[in-house]
Amino acid sequence: MKAALLVLSLLGQPAIPISDRVPVLNVEGLCRDVSADDKASGLALAQDAGECLRDEKLAQQQLSSAWLTVPGPARESCEGEATAGGIESYVDLLTCLQMAGWANPAPPPAPPLRGASKMRNAKN
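== Secreted protein ==
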């Protein structure tokens, strides 16, 4: 990292430290507010604060496994977008990186295939 900062300083560009860790975001307030807004709006499928927190935690875990594979400028840009206006969201951060072509989630496990296999009717 020191070499990268040295190269940037030699090129006349300001050195901006980029974190090697997923930022720590406060999502509890966001989830409480979203849940309250959904209920106040009378939405039939209002999101529960607990569901929101589970989604945020899952997004944080996905970010943790992909964070270092994303270039610093993309991380910085998406972090700024995901925390704009004082609203912080790991889901927004992950979505931004995915839309930029980074941090794609692993595909879900494939179901067992039977198809036309000769063994499809074999008893285990």
